[in-house]
């Protein structure tokens, strides 16, 4: 068979060029090399480095053999309208689905769920931070409310140093979250409410308008949050075989690390930043 030597040579040159571009992209992404660092290292201009980085194609593919998965899901933002939704398998320490989004919408989570199920995955449990409506997107899948975020919600309502005795008592109950179970926590919460129910009903009337409002609105909101989320605070104890985390820390910590790596490269265009983010999401090979 006749072989075109020139064609083969061109193919080999193209392959070497592609591999070189991938090499400098990985150095740029993982080794935190700047345009100037790479330009000096390879004797090229910064513009040449930028052009070649932009020509690298990054595949959004993560391969895992496990089909039954536990998922931590959340959205983080690089700017006001530049967000990223990520589904992460905390036991495998792998990101298994992601999508760039302008806003945190329920439908983004629904897209992630449908994508994984379509590709043969079974989500056995989901860990969420409690944003309204998101839990419902996962239907009957066991859901775990993040303990850290639940404590944050209560802290926002009661402050770090509440002065009311009722607030102090409720905050002390919340402190036990990680070291108790649903039965005991529920008894403590119900006992607290029975003790303070009349206090919670107190009203304040505006003398000018005659309108009234509950005097301890923030305390009521803190209690209501705990009561609403109670069925989802101890899911991790109901399915010990799944090794469900009781927080979204796996993803929260990852987001912090991801942003630190991306922020090394100042002034990134949106397209270039997304390419770097995808490479980081895939993880080191």
Secondary structure elements and pairings:
Elements: H1 5-30, H2 35-42, H3 46-54, E1 68-79, E2 82-89, E3 94-101, H4 106-118, E4 122-128, E5 143-145, H5 147-158, H6 165-174, H7 182-200, E6 203-205, E7 212-214, H8 217-229, H9 235-238, H10 249-263, H11 270-282
Helix pairs in contact: 2-3, 5-6, 5-8, 6-7
Task: Describe the overall structure.
This protein has helices at residues 5-30, 35-42, 46-54, 106-118, 147-158, 165-174, 182-200, 217-229, 235-238, 249-263, 270-282; strands at residues 68-79, 82-89, 94-101, 122-128, 143-145, 203-205, 212-214. The strands form two sheets. The protein has a five-stranded mixed sheet, sandwiched between helices. A two-stranded antiparallel sheet has the order 6-7. Strand 1 (68-79) and strand 2 form a beta hairpin. 50% of the residues lie in helices and 15% in strands. The protein has eleven helices and seven strands. The protein has 285 residues and is an alpha/beta fold.
């Amino acid at each position: 068979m006749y072989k075109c030597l020139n064609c083969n040579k061109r193919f080999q040159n193209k392959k070497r060029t592609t591999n070189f571009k991938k090499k400098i992209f990985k150095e740029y992404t993982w080794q935190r090399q700047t345009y100037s660092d790479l330009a000096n290292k390879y004797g090229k201009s910064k513009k040449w480095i930028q052009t070649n980085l932009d020509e690298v194609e990054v595949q959004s593919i993560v391969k895992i053999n496990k089909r039954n998965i536990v998922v931590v899901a959340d959205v983080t933002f690089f700017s006001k309208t530049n967000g990223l939704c990520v589904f992460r398998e905390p036991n495998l320490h792998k990101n298994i689905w992601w999508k760039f989004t302008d806003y945190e919408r329920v439908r983004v989570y629904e897209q992630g769920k449908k994508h994984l199920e379509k590709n043969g995955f079974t989500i056995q449990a989901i860990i969420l931070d409690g944003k309204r409506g998101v839990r419902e997107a996962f239907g009957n899948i066991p859901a775990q409310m993040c303990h850290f975020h639940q404590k944050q919600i209560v802290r926002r309502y009661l402050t770090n140093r509440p002065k009311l005795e009722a607030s102090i008592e409720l905050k002390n109950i919340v402190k036990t979250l990680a070291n108790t179970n649903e039965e005991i926590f529920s008894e403590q919460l119900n006992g607290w409410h029975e003790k303070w129910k009349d206090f919670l009903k107190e009203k304040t009337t505006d003398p000018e308008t005659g309108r009234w409002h509950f005097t301890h609105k923030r305390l009521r909101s803190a209690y209501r949050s705990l009561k609403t989320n109670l069925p989802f605070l101890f899911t991790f104890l109901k399915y010990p075989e799944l090794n469900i985390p009781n927080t979204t820390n796996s993803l929260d910590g990852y987001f912090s690390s991801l942003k630190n790596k991306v922020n090394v490269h100042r002034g990134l265009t949106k397209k270039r930043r997304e390419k770097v983010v995808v490479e980081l999401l895939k993880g080191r090979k």
